[in-house]
Each structure stands twice: as C-alpha cells, then as structure tokens.
Design a protein that fits this description.
It is a single chain. It is built from no helices and 11 strands. With 118 residues, the protein is mainly beta. Strands 2, 4, 5, 6, 9, 10 and 11 form a 7-stranded mixed sheet that branches. Strands 1-3-8-7 form a 4-stranded antiparallel sheet, with no helix packed on it. The N and C termini lie far apart (40 Å).
C-alpha cells in the first residue's frame, strides 16, 4: 500500500522556522522525483520545491528561494522541507508528492497545515 505521510506543520510566528517531513512507503522511493506543494487559502495548489531522485539537484519557486531547503534520505525514504524566515504568505497546507516521469505515476500525501501568524 502506497503511503506518503507528512508531519511537522503547525503554528509559527513570522520569521520563525519549521521542518516538514514526508515519510514514504509502498513504492521504490529512489525512483521518484519528490515535490512539495503548497495550497494557500483560496488559491490553487502550487509547487514550492522539488528534488531529483539522487538528491543532487533541487528547484524552488521564486517566492521561497533562499528561505526553504528541500532534501531527501533515500535510505529512510523521507523527504524534508526546511522552512526559514517564514512569512504570513507561506501559510497553507503543504503536500508531499512523488512523481515518476517515465510513466506519469504520481502519489500524494494528505497534507500538513502550516500557519504563520503573530
């Protein structure tokens, strides 16, 4: 059974930090590009960061560059999102996504809520 389970969300003040984790099971984790998406209130889901299968390259949305860092551990089958200097506009539900380009297979987690507010 395929599962992606996010954790680490919560309430944080502006300028604070959070570290999200997404633990995978039920598929070959190292075969998949891993993405973090964010859905802000009233907005569509949008990608904030992704990382290659080997973890040697990452891409970021302009809005989070230099503040967020994505990483992965293929042994522990986990992807992380370190979020620093958080802003109120970072508020939203963060989803973990596994993507295999060769056949278009996608898996999604259920999301974890991040609220940035004073």
């Amino acid at each position: 059974q395929v599962q992606l389970v996010e954790s680490g969300g919560g309430l944080v003040q502006p300028g604070g930090s959070l570290r999200l984790s997404c633990e995978a099971s039920g598929f070959t984790f190292s075969w998949y590009i891993m993405n973090w998406y964010r859905q802000a209130p009233g907005k569509e889901r949008a990608m904030v960061a992704n990382i290659t299968r080997a973890g040697d390259s990452a891409n970021y949305a302009d809005s989070v560059k230099d503040r967020f860092t994505i990483s992965r551990d293929n042994v522990k089958k986990t992807v992380f999102l370190q979020m620093n200097s958080l802003k109120p506009e970072d508020t939203g539900v963060y989803y973990c996504n596994a993507e295999r380009l060769v056949n278009g297979v996608n898996y999604w987690g259920k999301g974890t809520l991040v609220t940035v507010s004073s």
